[in-house]
Design brief:
CyaE is necessary for transport of calmodulin-sensitive adenylate cyclase-hemolysin (cyclolysin). It is a single chain. The protein has 10 helices and 4 strands, in the order ααααββαααβαβαα. It is an alpha+beta fold. Helix 5 runs antiparallel to helix 7, helix 7 runs antiparallel to helix 9 and helix 9 runs antiparallel to helix 10. Strand 1 and strand 2 form a beta hairpin. The chain has a single domain, classed as Up-down Bundle (Outer membrane efflux proteins (OEP)), CATH 1.20.1600.10. It starts with a helix and ends in a 6-residue tail after the last helix. The chain is elongated, with a radius of gyration of 37 Å. A 4-stranded antiparallel sheet has the order 1-2-3-4. The longest helix has about 70 residues.
């Protein structure tokens, strides 16, 4: 037992050395504050920040909340990300075990018959033993296993941060898909309304033709509008079905009809706005940025392991136990036996393998530095884009509402002039198409406004609570 304890003592005393390079977080290659200008809203200090606001306080529509809960429970991408975290945790435990020796317990016995020299007699001999042993344990003198354990730890933390990022993205994607379905339903209702109106206009125009008031050209033009409306209804039905399928995929199972949205105009208060704040330092707390940094730290630890390969390694094989000729007296009167067999290995020539491994680890780290910086830059752009959209969407919506009002008045005036016989039916059709397109654009802008609220919350790191 003393031999085994000596091995454990050596492990604790000689495993403190590390050849990992000193880690320094790369500077964020982005401005310290968000962009300013005509396209951006006025900045203000955010209290609390987006990451501290629970997603249920941002997505306040009860139906939307329930659909997001479904996604968090049943989405397969999120399940895969969580499984990846558990796998990384297991790999960390496996690597951490290399820091300690493996101790085995064993009992063995041997019984043999042999001839007595100079006679015809034989003799029986027995041998029994019990021992604790450790085999080929490498003392971590230069920190190779400790560096590999550090790399595994950072890989685990990166996997956990990636899972958090997947969760945040899932919340945003589910909300966006739910709003998209509402827009599709609004467009479908508008297409059906337009087809019904076009059908009525076609019937009236045909009646006017029979009475000699309208021309065949008017009927043909009215027929064109009606058939186009029919095609729009079919297209809108397809879009609605596809958007529903996309929502079901995110939710992990079919979303009940009771949880589906109404028209997009009814969702104006479904999502609350968040404040971006002033400083861009909030980006460093985003889970995807943290995942990139943990990956960089893992690469940094791998350099330490590659450096340690240049130094000698000491391997110990040891055992400690009892030996007796009788099993009954093995533990009461057995002889104490032990062995200790250290070995030293010094790399003299490896064809440049260790040097190449070190160069690879150093180059890999530089690649991860670039990846980390690109992740920060991408995060900054995502927030800047969302802020630019936020700064202009309200004005664009107000202008579009006025445009719809003007298009409605134009259509009504054109219809009245045609009914009075002072204008052609072509002007009525043009006004009708303009109104139809204006209403579709208004739906799209409301969708964009809601999407922007969701996106800004997501790119600021919100959704973790």
């Amino acid at each position: 037992m003393r031999v085994i304890m000596m091995v454990l003592g050596c492990t604790l005393l000689l495993s403190g050395c590390s050849l990992d390079p000193h880690y320094q977080q790369p500077s964020a290659p982005v401005p310290a504050a968000w962009p300013q200008g005509a396209s951006y809203p006025a900045t203000a200090q955010a209290h609390p920040s987006a990451e501290d606001i629970p997603w249920r306080e941002v997505m306040v529509d009860d139906k939307l909340r329930q659909v997001v809960e479904m996604a968090l429970s049943d989405n397969r991408d999120l399940r895969k990300a969580i499984a990846d975290v558990e796998a990384a945790r297991a790999q960390l435990g496996e690597q951490r075990a290399t820091l300690l020796p493996t101790i085995n317990a064993g009992i063995d016995g041997d019984r043999s018959r042999s001839l007595i020299s100079g006679s015809d007699g034989t003799t029986l001999s027995s041998s029994y033993g019990a021992s604790l042993s450790t085999s080929a344990f490498t003392l971590d003198l230069f920190g190779k296993n400790r560096s590999l354990t550090g790399a595994a730890r950072e890989a685990y933390l990166s996997s956990a941060a990636t899972a958090t990022s997947t969760r945040l993205t899932l919340i945003a994607d589910t909300a966006t898909a739910w709003v998209a379905l509402a827009t599709a339903r609004s467009n479908l209702a508008l297409a059906r309304q337009t087809m019904e109106s076009a059908g009525q206009s076609l019937a009236v125009t045909r009646s006017r033709l029979r009475n000699g008031v309208a021309s065949a050209v008017d009927v043909a033009q009215a027929e064109t509008v009606y058939q186009q409306a029919r095609a729009d209804v079919a297209s809108a039905l397809t879009t609605e079905a596809q958007d529903k399928n996309a929502l079901d995929l995110l939710a992990g199972r079919p979303v009940p009809e009771a949880l589906l949205p109404g028209d997009v105009a009814s969702l104006s208060q479904a999502v609350k706005p968040v404040v971006a704040g002033i400083s861009s330092a909030v980006l460093l707390r985003r889970p995807d940025v943290q995942a990139a940094e943990h990956t960089l730290k893992s690469a940094n630890a791998n350099i330490g392991a590659a450096r340690a390969a240049f130094f000698p390694s000491i391997t110990l094989t040891a055992s400690n136990g009892l030996s007796s000729e009788a099993l009954s007296s093995l533990f009461s009167g057995g002889a104490h036996v032990w062995s200790l067999a250290p070995s030293v290995s010094l790399p003299l020539f490896d064809g440049g393998a260790n040097l190449s491994a070190l160069r690879y680890a150093e180059a890999e780290k530089q690649g991860y530095v670039a990846s980390y910086e690109k992740t920060v830059q991408t995060a900054f752009r995502e927030v800047a884009d969302a802020l630019a959209r936020k700064g202009t969407i309200d004005e664009q919506q107000a202008a579009q509402r006025d445009y719809v009002t003007a298009a409605e008045r134009s259509y009504q005036l054109a219809s009245n002039r045609y009914q009075a016989g002072v204008d052609t039916y072509l002007n009525v059709l043009d006004a009708q198409r303009t109104l139809y397109s204006a209403r579709q654009s208004l739906f799209s802008l409301e969708q964009s406004r809601l999407d922007n609220l969701i996106t800004l919350y997501n790119v600021l790191g919100g959704g973790g609570k």
